[in-house]
Amino acid sequence: MKKAQAANEVAAIHGVITDQAPVDFRALGLAGCIDRLAAPLREQGTTVRWETPHHGVEIPSGTAGLPYHAAQEALSNALKFAGATELTVRLAAVHHGIRLTVADNGAGFDRNDRTGNRPQGFGLFLMSIAVHEAGGTATVDSAPGEGTCVTVTLPLD
């Protein structure tokens, strides 16, 4: 019963995945909170795979917000634009930090396309700025027909 309730607290509103309940990193951990965000993708038939270390990745609750919001943006874009059938979320500890990767097998896009043939939002751009201001790196690799991979690496010290 609790799982169904948790899934209902996450909704896609105009293609943007929104968690309507307070995010509880202490209870669910970062991976659990991100996994909740994937509910609308699963509902549309997308297979969501997780790759995390067996021992988990320990992240202070105060630091978990930025990778959570980066995942929210990447998952929202996958839901709204990609048409993906498969999506992989990776969460890994790296030297003094954490790396989040969200990759899909969807439509992809040409980042250099300025012709107006693709939606021009600010979500990935603003996410990249926030990550850089926190001392991290953000990359978006995509090509038409080859899916999209968003990678965010953040320091934890």
Write up this protein.
The chain has 157 residues and is α+β, with helices and mostly antiparallel strands. The protein is built from 5 helices and 7 strands; from the N terminus they run αββααβαββαββ. The strands form 2 sheets. A 5-stranded mixed beta sheet has the order 3-4-5-7-6, with helices on one face. It has a two-stranded antiparallel ribbon with strand order 1-2. Strand 3 (47-51), helix 4 (65-82) and strand 4 (86-94) form a beta-alpha-beta unit. Helix 2 (25-37) runs parallel beside helix 4 and helix 4 runs antiparallel to helix 5. Residues 1-7 have low confidence and may be disordered.
Along the chain, the helix and strand elements come as: HEEHHEHEEHEE
Helical/strand content category: alpha+beta
Strands of the biggest beta sheet: in what spatial order?
3-4-5-7-6
Largest sheet: 5 strands, mixed
Runs with pLDDT <50, length 5+?
A: 1-7
What Rg do the Cα atoms give? 15 Å
Mean pLDDT, to the nearest integer, reads: 85
Helix content: 25-40%
The percentage of residues in β strands lies in 25-35%
* Overall geometry: globular
What is shown here, in short?
The chain is of the alpha+beta class and 157 residues long.
SSE blueprint and pairings:
Blueprint: H1 2-8, E1 10-13, E2 16-19, H2 25-37, H3 39-43, E3 47-51, H4 65-82, E4 86-94, E5 97-104, H5 123-133, E6 137-142, E7 148-155
Parallel strand pairs: 3-4
Antiparallel strand pairs: 1-2, 4-5, 5-7, 6-7
